[in-house]
Amino acid sequence: MNMPEKIVSYVLIVVSIGKEFDVLNKVKDLSGVTEAVVVYGEYDLVVRIEADNMKVIDNVVTNIRKIPSVLRTVTLIGYVKQ
Length: 82
Prior knowledge:
Blueprint: E1 6-15, H1 20-28, E2 33-38, E3 45-51, H2 54-65, E4 70-80
């Protein structure tokens, strides 16, 4: 039996200085987010999203962008073949 392919996306997030963990806690509560971590370097957080379709990915990314202190996002789209 063929399993449907999953879409996996990684969102790289830049936030206001000192707000990394505030944004992290809000992102972790979003449906579809499977992992979120604070990182050091050009980006402040990396978020992993897994979904069955692009509409779900779009909704999660839109909700991330609405979080106060999120300044910029970059979304990388991929998929996991089951």
